[in-house]
Amino acid sequence: EAQVTQNPRYLITVTGKKLTVTCSQNMNHEYMSWYRQDPGLGLRQIYYSMNVEVTDKGDVPEGYKVSRKEKRNFPLILESPSPNQTSLYFCATRDITNYGYTFGSGTRLTVV
Amino acid sequence: AQSVTQLDSQVPVFEEAPVELRCNYSSSVSVYLFWYVQYPNQGLQLLLKYLSGSTLVKGINGFEAEFNKSQTSFHLRKPSVHISDTAEYFCAVISKSGTYKYIFGTGTRLKVLA
What is the C-alpha to C-alpha distance for residues A25 and A10, in angstroms, rounded to an integer? Predict the structure, then answer.
């Protein structure tokens, strides 16, 4: 079954404590992306990757890092989380020819 | 630059009634169009997409959408809704050039009433 697996599903952390949200896909897709979803703002792209070792900024990259060392994994790193990064985060992947996304189940992050 | 407008933030409708969720877009280049559904506590799921060909697109769960180039719209319809259709629906576009970046609308919350 085609899957995008994110962990953890829920996370409460304190300001400044580094954290990593993992994302893994089993569809062998080159393209992967991270979004954050906030009420009234829809989905905003944080970072994306078009292939291994190729990453680029989306619309709201400040305060986030990513890496793409393997095709299947695309972790999101918050080096020093702040309360304004409290949000619902989604990892997604898509085939480069049909453009439809497959999303993970989401990570609800609260930074206090 | 592209933009997507979903004018209705919430749409209440009674069970078995028809529904239309509106989506308008703005773009200086040709686009591909998508509708996604998000059930509570889940990720987004692709409902349907328009890439080319017939402007009437059928998707999963009985939904369909029609691409209207002159009105730059891609409204989503279902002739008879069920309680289980209660969810948030997102329209999205990507341009047919460049990085093929997605632009999402802000979503329409469909609430189906018994």
Answer: 19
Q: Which residue of A has its CA nearest to B32?
A: A99
Interchain CB contact of B65 with A (< 8 Å) = no
| Cβ distance of A104 and B43 shorter than 8 Å | yes
Q: Measured between alpha carbons, how far apart are the two ends of chain A, in Å?
A: 36
Q: What is the pLDDT of residue B29?
A: 86
d(CA A4, CA A26): 7
Give yes or no for a contact between B3 and B102, defined as CB atoms under 8 angstroms apart. no
Is A42 in Cβ contact with B46 (below 8 Å)?
Answer: no
Does B100 sit within 8 Å of A106, measured CB to CB? no
Reported as a single tens digit per residue, the pLDDT across A15-41 is: 999 999 999 999 999 999 999 999 888
Separation CA B65–CA A45 (nearest Å): 25
